[in-house]
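Example record for the data management plan.
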Amino acid sequence: MIVLGLNAYHGDSAAALVKDGRLVAAAEEERFRRIKHWSGLPTEAMKWCLADAGLKLGDVDHIAINRNPKVNNLRRALYVLRKRPSLSLMLKRLGNIRRAGSFEDSVQAAFPGEKLRAQVHRVEHHLAHLASGFLVSDFEEAVCLSVDGFGDFASSAWGMGKGNDIQIDGRVYFPHSLGIFYSVITQFIGFPYFGDEYKVMGLAPYGEPKYLKEMRELVQVQSDGTFRLNLKYFRHHTEDVHYTWDNCSPEVGTLYKKEPMEALLGPQREKGAALEQKHRDLARSAQAMYEEAFFAMLQALHARYKCDNLALSGGCAMNSVANGKVYLNSPFKRMYLPASAGDAGGAIGSAFVVARQEGAAANRERYVMDHAYVGPQAGDGEIQALLDERKAEIMAEQCTVRRVDDEGELCRLTAAAITEGKVIGWFQGRMEWGPRALGNRSILGDPRRADMKDILNLKIKRRESFRPFAPSILREQVSEWFEQDDDVPFMMEVFQVRAEKRAQIPATTHVDGSGRLQTVHKETNPRYHRLISAYREITGVPMVLNTSFNENEPVVCTPQQALDCFLRTKMDVLVLNDWMVTR
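Corresponding structural encoding:
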């Protein structure tokens, strides 16, 4: 049975292909379109998933989309009657729902000459989120929680997952949303673009929670562990906020009311204005408020269900700082976080909801997603042809090209280059699913060098200086270097680096002594594990600095994009599978 799962008409559009209950391919549309967070119908990702599996559209039995316009409609109607939002806002929302509701025609148009015979399933947004965590975990049962912006008129949902099923027991409905709260502070601090929330998380350790009292005015935690927004400061629920979601990089207009917000927090930071200590304190205060509300939910859910396992998902589950404190600030003992907790993950979640519902009992053996390497890859012939075709450009940059057939030697040479302070573009195997580079589309550096962060920010990444870089560490060495010991294969948690180790790895230790780690397993990425092991043999340090292979663009997908990025930046070495290009 073939199921094609989609996150469509939403930011981070994506496609995932499940065959006989196993994930065989998944990718975000932005990697093909080269437009960050691309929103619309993910036609290029769909085409790639099918081609990679050797399938045509007519081979697909089921298509699952992580949106269901028919759910929570009573809540919608009652809200409209009570609050009477602007007519233009209602018309815009209805238009967006209609577009998603008639997407079969768009799918057929994207595949001319092929027949769409698949049954289409519309899966509630938050059920898809919950499934992206629970149904691909190794839990037989777990508390399931999705915390998001909005989807299908809700911002959060929770329940219990058991076996192949998830029962949703509660939701937080529109207009209350922790995701909207965090986006509002992101905009207020002067980061206006869709997806900029991670900048607030990176800025927060430089501040103090001096505005926590004001944040509690914006978000009010309830006695049952849920939350409500103080709506007098927000405009997303009554006014026509500018949104663009169709065939573009998403744009979101101002979500807050300027006058009351500035009365509460002072003047907003204009885009491009200097970052002041006040903005750092606002970021820290917003993070503290999010954590207060988040952990109140976790405490209430654990008390209700009496289960120590947690499957966490939704856009807010990308908050790796809060995730890293789950074991410290809640009774949960084990947690599964998917590689893509945000909306893209709904492609996998919706596919598995349908695969579990429609598959025969014999095909219901649990699939565990313990790695994210399910995207496009390049063969040796493709890479050699590229290097031959671009030989003149490569020579003009005074680069040498060599093939290293012995994997051990390739890893030793790369590790030695890292110890020399060189910046490595590392392109290997199948591209990662999700927003994190996990050792197959990565830029690597020496975590011991205090200046490596500045080198990468100024010469390669060209991004804000306050944003941290992550360590990829051998799984077996985590407890020696971090204060907590857990499996973090998708770089979704931040732990404190042990105090006595921080001076050894300044490039991957944030200002508050933390690091957003990725644990690397020999079983799931043997070449990357071997590279880090080779670096450890030279330095005694079992980790390398890892950041995404890109330059203010989506992560590179193809060897052509990797070579382009290498040539236009100041990277020192590019490793394309078995090929090394050295400046």
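Summary line stored alongside the record: The chain is about 35% helix and 20% strand.
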